[in-house]
Amino acid sequence: MRIGDLEFGAKPLFLAPMEDVTDVSFRVLCTEQGAAMVYTEFVPSDGLIRDADKAIAKMHTLPEEAPVGIQIYGHIPESMVEAARMADRAAEIAGGHGADVIDINFGCPVSKIAGRGAGSGMMREPDKMVAITKAVVEAVNKPVTVKTRLGWDEGSKIIVELAERLQDVGIQALTIHGRTRQQMYKGSADWTLIGEVKNNPRMHIPIIGNGDITNGPQAKEAFDRYGVDAIMIGRASFGHPWVFREIRRYLDAGETLPPLPVADRVALAKRHFELSLRYKGAPRGIYEMRRHLSCYFKGLPDFKQTRMRLVTTTDPAEVLSILDYIQETWAGVPLETSNVYDI
User: Hey, which residues are catalytic here?
Assistant: First the structure.
């Protein structure tokens, strides 16, 4: 599979962009665990053009996580074009590696984004969506991709025709989440329309499927049954970054890895924490790790008090001490290889 000059090989696994989750430390960790490409958190186009520090900081990427996509969102065409140009020059503006791909977010369902016409709110204005995409493609040098949904609601699943239109204005890959905006994250993702897009004889760009893939057998079925070129994994990676390694092993060797032992989870949590402190410092790097740290050990018995200590301390040394305590106390306790969608 290729996007522009990027070669990913067969059946790659991508990390989905997720607000307040896919910061640089998590992206690096997921790359180490087998993600073939990672994406930034959502970067607001209006924030970029106002030179807002927080928006610019989200574009800071590192060579060790490459290839990486910078994802932008918005509903004003002029702002989206200018933001895309800034993302194209992210290495100059925000430092670091920059963008290998510029991705347009037409899929986020949360009300504060979709409600004002951005993200999946654009599904109600497909002509405007296509026009913005065309303008962005023409404004930048990097490959442009799009992430979107099946439609706004059950009665307006427009993705098959929309995919053709987006391809025709020059995007180089399309990610489809198998739900409508109205569904948010409820119910099950519908992969049938994703497969219909992929098997449309008019489509020639890579189609990336997204939604409810949590393990190797599910990933294999998605590749085999629907023919997608890649799979994007979102919520299944939260508190479970090794999901990429598990799925990759199943796809490559047909092997199901056993649940990750507590000691290995502690080692990964320490690695993640170290990356967060390195890139963000204290106390910010501690605050932004809290939701991750508690999820690494979900399912441990009698863990509530320890979890509270883990997510309230502001002392880096104490965080590491608590992680050592977890390893000593719960070593050998079996944990299921499952993921909880609690973000």
Answer: 108
